[in-house]
Amino acid sequence: MGNPFAELSATVSPGLMQFYVVLMIALVVVGVILDMKHKQSAKYFFANAKKAEKNAKRKVSDGEKMSLKVKTLTNEVLTSSEFCNEDRRKSHLLTMYGFIFFVISTAVMIFGYGDAESTPFIWPLLWHLGALSLCVGGYWFWFKIRVDVSAEGLPWNRVERADLFILSLLATATFALLWSLSGATLFFGAFIISSTILFGGVYWSKFAHMFFKPAAAYQKKVTRADESRENLPAEYDLTDPEVQKKFPDIPMYMGDNPPNMGQGIKREDPRHY
Question: Phi and psi at residue 13, in whole multiples of 5°?
Answer without folding.
Answer: -65, 145
